Amino acid sequence: MQIRAFPVLNTERLCLRSPVEEDIPHLLKISQDEDVMRYYGVEPYKSMLEARKEVDWMRRIFREGKGIRWIITSQDKPEYIGDIGLDKYIEKHRRAELGFKLKKMYWRQGIITEAFSKVLCYGFEEMRLNRIEALVDPRNEASMKLLEKAGFKEEGVLRDYEFEKEEFIDLVMTSLLKKEWPAP
């Protein structure tokens, strides 16, 4: 992935932009929202320093060519409302993993669906991906439906794949191949 400047993606309502220092308090707050993080697999951040590490990680994966993570904002207000991206990028195999989270007050407004359109386009066209994967906790029905609506296919269950909150959990592997993608 040979990209020099961080790409900004715009939709009718949204701007997907690079992470900035001002996003740190929002990342701290969203990490502490139990409903948002229920199936995310990350413990709540306890400090601004932990949230800063996430911003540093977002910047690093782009700089190192290992992925890209955008901050989701509305077109009229540059404040963080969520984030979305493609990471675990393997150039040789032309695949990456999709991940996203969104503040609860913005749920069920079509925001992630709108962001998907730009992110998938970027992944398949700019990164030249053949496969975009998403691992989902099977209890997360909303995310499963979002991915299905975007064309992702369920491939199988990875049994006891992660250890979270003192228990092993399954994850469902889903994917969208370029040949299946309904390009805009």
Word description of this protein:
- 29% of the residues lie in helices and 35% in strands.
- α1 (24-31) crosses α3.
- It has a domain at 9-132: Aminopeptidase.
- The longest helix is centred in the first third of the chain and has 16 residues, at 48-63.
- The model has no long low-confidence stretch (mean pLDDT 93).
- With 184 residues, the chain is of the alpha+beta class.
- It has five helices and eight strands.
- The protein has an eight-stranded mixed β-sheet with strand order 1-2-3-4-5-6-8-7, with helices on both faces.
User: Which spans have pLDDT < 50 for at least 5 consecutive residues?
Assistant: none
Distance between the termini: 22 Å
What structural category arises from helix and sheet content? alpha+beta
Order of helices and strands, N to C?
EEHHHEEEHEHEE
Q: What strand line-up does the widest sheet have?
A: 1-2-3-4-5-6-8-7
Q: What percent of residues are in strands?
A: 25-35%
The CATH class of the domain at 9-132, by name, is Alpha Beta
Tell me roughly what share of residues is in helical segments: 25-40%
The largest β sheet comes out as: 8 strands, mixed
User: How many strand units?
Assistant: 8
Q: pLDDT average, as an integer?
A: 93
CATH architecture of the domain at 9-132: 3-Layer(aba) Sandwich
Please describe the structure with a list of short key phrases separated by commas or semicolons.
184 residues, alpha+beta, Aminopeptidase, eight-stranded mixed beta sheet, 5 helices, globular
